[in-house]
From TrEMBL:
It holds the Pfam family TetR_C_1. GO terms for biological process: negative regulation of DNA-templated transcription. Residues 34-94 form the HTH tetR-type domain. It comes from Actinomadura viridis. Keywords: DNA-binding, Transcription, Transcription regulation. The lineage of its organism: Bacteria, Bacillati, Actinomycetota, Actinomycetes, Streptosporangiales. Residues 57-76 bind DNA. Signal peptide: none annotated. This is AcrR family transcriptional regulator.
Length: 255
């Protein structure tokens, strides 16, 4: 669960939300053209996928769509609205998750892995800012899927929503960090094992074992020279989060 646009003042809906849910049609005036909202969003996705989020401007997307920038504004009134539509398009709907008979833990784990997979397939959308709770169609579908997974926990509504926020925040943060590190590895022509070894050597040279005894203990153990599998850190964090949720359920005597 990520992004979305904020609800407008006075309870009004942002234009991007109305467009996504089919509550508003574009354009309202002028002759019929070949350009469409779907085509604009697809053009923006192509630009973002090939050139990064920073390249997704109204003028660049208009050029990709084969239209003028002014024509684009007849369908989407701002870049922010366009980004909300793009994020929802790229995330798509969540895949089918294990049913309640498999237990809430397996359901939430599958949800987290699915969201991580979607973000890692399109890491440029991680730069789309979060401006409010999910209100776009696909993002609401991801929220619904997670809430269904929590249904068997027997927890009150606020705690179920809290679990959703905690888990989605973890997935997004881990996906962002992983992508940033992979980008750094590529830029420096190194790999994780080499980076960790160099980092350990750097720390050893910069720090005093008297002042940083725990750190130097880890350096001596060779911790910074050991690179695990590509998913090890994600698995460790996810399992600890699920352990905490399981302890909460047991503590309240609900499963």
């Amino acid at each position: 669960m990520s992004e979305d646009n904020e609800v407008g003042e006075g309870g009004g809906l942002p234009e991007s939300v109305e467009l996504a849910w089919g509550l508003r049609e574009r354009p309202g005036k002028g002759p019929k053209r070949a350009l469409s909202l779907k085509g604009i969003v697809e053009a923006a996705v192509r630009v973002g996928s090939s050139e990064g989020l920073e390249a997704v401007s109204m003028s660049r997307v208009a050029a990709e769509a084969g239209a003028s920038t002014m024509a684009l504004y007849r369908y989407v009134s701002s870049k922010n609205d366009l980004l909300m539509l793009v994020f929802d398009q790229v995330m798509g709907e969540p895949p089918p998750l294990p049913g309640p008979e498999r237990g809430w833990r397996e359901g939430l784990s599958a949800w987290a892995w699915a969201m991580r997979g979607a973000l890692r397939r399109h890491p440029w959308i991680l730069r789309v800012p979060i401006t409010g709770p999910p209100v776009m169609p696909n993002n609401v579908a991801w929220m619904e899927a997670a809430l269904r997974a929590t249904a068997g926990m027997g927890l009150p509504g606020p705690e179920r929503v809290g679990i959703l926020l905690l888990l989605s925040g973890y997935v997004r943060t881990e996906a962002t960090m992983s992508h940033d590190l992979e980008t750094a590895f590529q830029a420096s022509s190194t790999n994780e094992r080499e980076m960790l070894a160099n980092y350990g050597a750097l720390l050893a040279s910069l720090t005093d074992p008297v002042r940083f005894p725990e750190l130097h203990g880890l350096i001596k153990e060779g911790v910074f020279g050991e690179a695990g599998g590509p998913d090890d850190d994600f698995v460790f964090g996810l399992e600890r989060l699920l352990d905490g949720m399981e302890a909460l359920v047991r503590e309240q005597g609900r499963g």
